[in-house]
Known about the structure:
Helices cover 82% and strands 0% of the residues. With 209 residues, the chain is mainly α. It contains eleven helices and no strands. The chain has one domain. The model is unreliable at 1-16 (pLDDT under 50). InterPro entries: Yip1_dom. Pfam families: Yip1 (PF04893).
Amino acid sequence: MSEVNEVNEENNAPTSSAWLNIWIKPKETVRAVINRNKNRGIIFLVFFGSYATVLRIVSFSDLIRILSLREIFLSVVVLGSIGALIFYYLVSVILQLTGRWIGGKATYKEIKLVNGYISITAIWCLVILIPQIILVTLDKSTPPILTMFNILINIWIFIIYLKSLAEVQRFSAIKSLLNVSIVSLIMYITLFITLLVIVQTFGKPPGVI
């Protein structure tokens, strides 16, 4: 009876506050989400997370000082939407297929759940943009401590993602890293070949050496 209570406690606790627990208990949170089949509204998480990621990239680069407000908005919407669709559907299926090569057991649906709930971390990171936007408004440079904090947060999010993926694939974090590396390599090669074909077909854009 006590074992059943332990299982129920493990399954119920993380999902009630996944927005917080994903940071400190990623494996338990993901497992509880899968056990409860909580996929309602997950696509919205993916899109908002993708928008937040693009906005954060723009904010911590010189682009925020170069682009107009309209251009920033269009960049976030267009690139964020494309990124969300690629991450949620394409990356999920490649992770699932390549994961099998190294002993992964996750289903396509489980991978999508991981990619959906990891987006919570990206949305939370919008908090970091508040001081950054204030600094840009005052025409001040980003202090090193804020840049370092942003880097550390990115590293921790990556670790959270590896742990979450390892949970659904039912293998170690090292294999999870290998899984992600294989997918990254496949996508980079695909992008390189696509760009090469475009250049060979239409020629180089003006101004490109």
